[in-house]
Write a structure and sequence with these properties.
Helix content is 63%, strand content 5%. Mean pLDDT is 78; it is low at 1-9 and 183-187. α6 (107-121) crosses α7. The chain is mainly alpha-helical. The chain has a single domain (13-181), classed as EF-hand (Recoverin, domain 1, Orthogonal Bundle), CATH 1.10.238. The protein is globular. It has a two-stranded antiparallel sheet with strand order 1-2.
């Protein structure tokens, strides 16, 4: 697969250039390690839950699973977050929740990732337990205590409140703002 295929509708050349020069400035090797990723985002010294979440985000951005995010993976990730269609984003969220990678999300997985997200974002109207119960109550159609990708996407797409909540809670644009503007000087 050519690099282009993984970057649907990529941005203008100057915009790409901006990200490229930023990426190379922050990461001269062209390979961003997990440690550098955290440093770039100013997210060192998180609690274990927050750390876990950032590692999951990193692992999902690391498409070829080599332990580094290279420039193409970086751009693909930015592209998804800024321009991704809603079902692409939902697939991404699903991957984020499905900690053991078995193709289903159970309550424990959802609870742990939501707790981790709260640790980073810090703003929320409900506890992680309430959030988890609500999600399962609304979209676990067959009540088996697990959500498949299909149940998850269909359920969230059908329910505007849930869609808004999930999009807001897991909004990575904060992360991207940091990448764009750089938080180096404020650390």
């Amino acid at each position: 697969m050519g690099a282009q295929e993984s970057l649907p509708g990529h941005g203008s050349i100057p915009e790409m250039h901006h990200y490229y020069s930023k990426f190379m400035r922050e990461c001269p090797s062209g390979q961003l390690s997990l440690h550098e990723f955290k440093k770039l985002l100013g997210l060192q010294g998180l609690d274990p839950q927050g750390d876990l979440y950032i590692k999951r985000v990193f692992d999902i951005f690391d498409l070829n699973q080599d332990g580094f995010i290279d420039f193409l993976e970086f751009i693909a990730a930015i592209n998804l977050v800024i321009r991704g269609k809603i079902d692409q984003k939902l697939k991404w969220y699903f991957k984020l929740y499905d900690a053991d990678g078995n193709g289903c999300i159970d309550k424990k997985e959802l609870l742990s990732i939501f707790t981790a997200i709260q640790a980073i974002n810090g703003h929320t109207d409900m506890t992680a337990e309430e959030f988890t119960s609500m999600v399962f109550q609304k979209i676990d159609v067959n009540n088996d205590g697990e959500l498949t990708l299909e149940e998850f996407i269909n359920g969230v797409e059908r329910d505007e409140d849930l869609m808004e909540l999930i999009t807001k809670s897991f909004d990575l644009s904060n992360v991207l703002k940091v990448i764009q503007t750089g938080r180096r000087n404020s650390i």
